[in-house]
Amino acid sequence: MFDNLDPVLHSQLRLAVMSLLIGLEEAEFVYLKEKTKATSGNLSVQLDKLVQAKYITLKKSFKGKYPVTKATITNKGERAFNEYVQALKSYIK
Amino acid sequence: MNISDSIKTIEESLATARKTKTGARFYYILWGCILCLYFLMHFLAITYFKNNNETFLNWTWVLFPLGGFASMINKKTDDKKETSKSHFDRVYFVVFIALSIMYTIVTLISIRFNQHLIITLFPMLIGSAVFITGGLTKHLPSIIGGALSMTLTVISYNAELNLTYLLAATAAFCACIIPGILMKGANV
Question: What is the C-alpha separation between B34 and B136, in angstroms, rounded?
Fold first, then answer.
């Protein structure tokens, strides 16, 4: 039914992550987990899928003694998100 | 997931992302107070203590390293707590870096031509930076404060030296302190 919709984005958690990241410069894993109310395992899997599609990049660093993973949307991700929104609009019309 | 679910997810996530604060409020209030105090001290010293204000004015620069130290402490605390960064962070960073460069250049020019040029132009420089950031972040008090500050340059141009300092202090108050206070609750 939704042939034009990007299958990578047409999943609730991945779409939520992409929508959060498009409105932000960068977001940490804990922020995404808190805002999407996802489990760590599920979020990790979905983030990996977005990385494989080259829609986001993940950067690992340290905040004091603690490891931190920061996600940023890529240009390709932004384009894909805009196309997804356009496709949604065409379904609504 | 159907179309309405997708739209709902996008809308909710965008609204959540929009709530991320930049931390600009702290810097606006801190540097607004420092600049306001600095210019007021100069105004008072020149107006009321004309004969023996040299020693006093030579020490007013101390306010700036103090502000730098407070900013550094705040940045460290923010970095520890912050889990997301708004696009507006970059806006503030770029605009205020541009302001610093302009301020330095005008200071160098004013050393050569007119030592008080930088004080006269201060309301315009700070006002334009606050006006631009206010426009981009859709923060009305910053837009109004910035515009008001820029117009003070016109008055400052024809004013006596002591009044130039008073107008610069007023500019810091209008462009930094008031918008900073009114940033509470706003998404900036």
Answer: 25
The number of folded domains in chain A is 1
Distance CA A20, CA B144 (A): 30
B71-126 residue pLDDT tens: 999 999 998 899 999 999 999 999 999 999 999 999 999 988 887 899 999 999 99
Tens digit of each residue's pLDDT (9 = 90 or more) over B2-56: 888 899 999 999 999 999 989 899 999 999 999 999 999 999 998 888 777 777 7
Residue A82 lies in a domain: yes
Q: What are the chain B neighbours of A26 within 8 Å (beta carbons)?
A: 84-85
Q: Do B16 and A26 touch (CB under 8 A)?
A: no
Whether A22 sits inside 8 A of B17 (CB atoms) is yes
User: Is A74 strand, coil or helix?
Assistant: coil
**What CATH number does residue A42 fall under?**
1.10.10.10
Report CB contact under 8 Å: A23, B18.
yes
- Look up the ipTM and state it: 0.88
| Nearest-by-Cβ selection for A19 from B5, B9, B85 | B9
| Among the partner residues B1, B3, B17, nearest to A20 by beta-carbon distance | B17
